[in-house]
Amino acid sequence: MTCKVIQQNNYMCGRLTYQNEERCHIHIRKWIQMRLEALGIIKKYPRKIGEIESGLNLIRSTDPNYKDKYGYNIIHKGVLASNINLIQQGIKIGVDVNGSLILKNILHCIL
Ligand SMILES: [Zn+2]
Question: What pTM does this model have?
Answer without folding.
Answer: 0.81
